[in-house]
Amino acid sequence: MTTETPTSSQTAQRLRVGLVGLAAVVLLIGIASAIFSAASRERPVATADAPKPEAIANMTLANGSVPATAPNEPLAELGVAPATANGTAPAAPRR
Asked: Is the pLDDT of residue 9 over 80?
């Protein structure tokens, strides 16, 4: 089995191909970076059906009028556990 040593022209061509490939990858990464940075600097587009932030803020302020004596039972508010009728702990079972 004989191994041929590459000539200087083959070595130069391989080096040229490798450097062109490396330059192409760096160029593609630069272009992608420029595109993504330009896209992140753009303001969001307001569509016709999009809710306005100030209207949403006013709606949440209007819905915030919860009675001051509301019981602090988050599970009952979610419907996971039954609420106690008078806000106190349930009575002990009878024997």
From this structure: yes
